Amino acid sequence: MSDFQEYFDPNHQLIRDAVRRFVEREILPFVDEWEEAEGFPRELYLKAGAAGILGMGYPEALGGSHEGDVFAKVAASEELMRCGSAGLVAGLGSLDIGLPPVVKWGQPALRERVAPQVLSGEKIMALAITEPGGGSDVANLQTRAVREGDCYRVSGSKTFITSGIRADFYTVAVRTGEPGFAGISLLLIEKGTPGFSVGRQLKKMGWWASDTAELFFEDCRVPMANLIGAENMGFACIMGNFQNERLALALMANMTSQLALEQSLSWARQREAFGKPIGKFQVLKHRLAEMATQLEVSREFTYRQAAKMAAGQSVIKEISMAKNFATDTADRITYDAVQILGGSGYMRDSLVERLYRDNRILSIGGGTREVMNEIIAKQMGL
Length: 382
Fold this sequence. Notes:
Elements: H1 10-27, H2 31-37, H3 43-50, H4 70-80, H5 86-92, H6 95-98, H7 100-105, H8 108-119, E1 125-128, E2 144-148, E3 151-162, E4 169-175, E5 184-190, E6 196-201, E7 212-223, E8 227-228, H9 234-270, E9 272-273, E10 276-277, H10 282-310, H11 316-341, H12 351-359, H13 369-379
């Protein structure tokens, strides 16, 4: 793995070291057990909060650190992925898709009540946009919020919500106005609100360690003070939030590729066939060289977009490209890793088996591959 020194400074290396030690101490000894149990202890949020991991990139006044330092967040995110469980990373990091709208657009009282509890790990945050009949068609969401006095009455449902079972706070997309993107708002809805219920934990192909749930709202009364941003301006907030989510997913895909490549190289060096290590056979040497090349290109392109984001530039087209390229690369590298390890790569106790399963969601979540191509084409004037 190249050091990419033009993007990371010595402080970022200190962050890497600290997060890597946290992973080695608090996650790696237990991660296989948590995967099989399809969940990890809530206490891990508190530990990650105390270590400053959850607060990375958020304002100090709210309990965060390194606000505006995109590559501090990148370094921490990449090291968390070294635990080998993307589901755990997604569950632990669900605040990073649920909390930013509250921090950016929430009223001060709401922001100051919610954010410190989430960044400390005391409370858990989720984002609730996807609906059973909607998928990637965010502009068409049906969950309705009708204003009544000083409250909204919310009715509808959500699905595929990461941390949906155990979250305390949910940033929920609702329809407050006309059909289409112009009638969408964001509300903060708290667990325990009358009329709000959480459904069953959903069983998934991968990301076993993250809890994923359905949410139901039946005449759920939410205070108007919990409105995030202006009424009917939620779509713009969602789209802005998606850029950071797509960067995070590209980084996750690249680290999935990195771990799969490392496992493949280790196996190629030690596994022998026909009297020599299999890595000495030209067909595997070339495959590994191609895997490394694809990853190097993907990582460099992703980092370039992160650098542009850090400089305040708009990268709507490019971050969509980065997500697609990174997930395509991870598709290929995890496939090849299983093939290189052969039968061992198909076993549940193999890391590449988990990487192969976990990887599949990355080109779906945060906007599907097809939606990314639509965004890219639109930005090209098509």
